[in-house]
# Entry
Amino acid sequence: MKNSLVLIVEDEPAIARILEAYLLREGLRTVQAADGETALQHHALLKPDIVLLDARIPKLDGFAVLARLRQLSATPVIMVTALADDVDRLSGLHLGADDYVVKPFNPQEVVARVRAVLRRTMGQQDQAVLRFGTIEVDSGSFAAFVNRDGQRMPLTLTLSEFRILAHMIRHPTQAFARADILDACMPESDALARTVDTHISNLRRKLEEMGATGFFPSVRGIGYRLADPQ
# Structure
């Protein structure tokens, strides 16, 4: 985890310096970008391990940057922004943010969330490949695929989406409560239970785009399962 590279995307120099100071104190490396275009350039060239992304930045706003990142990679992204409305929070999560921190924030809390995400991303030792139906999950490489018509097609997932899929594929017909999914897959987050609905909706859509239908049915009064029992 130490020496992991954090891309700080923040146009207020004082806030960027504070985040950098706390992250460096934890042994992490940092690089800064003050606008959306520079952030995408740094991401392409430097391949950071995680991105701290402000919403209100010049050239390309944070939501546009997040959407572009999600087309390119599954790099974990934590939104750090003054936009505290539920609509903004859900918009970020819908686009693929893995967590959402509202300004003003405690820098130590931000660092704790970064550490927790990196711990789960880089410390995973389970190399098992899990399969159910047409879905395949490789926990060691944090990759997921849909196998259809003899083709192995990669799924582009956020870290939270991958965690949920990897967690539920182990017991594909078990009904999982939203709170249990949060505890198992996003323990470092203070997200609300309805955040799970957004992630599940995104997972269902991405699978359907690959021709994998019938996954993640809702279970009335409980939450979700990966697939209904046959």
Remarks:
- The chain has two domains: 5-122, 129-224.
- The chain has a mean pLDDT of 85.
- The domain at 5-122 is CATH 3.40.50.2300 (Rossmann fold).
- The first helix runs from residue 13 to 25.
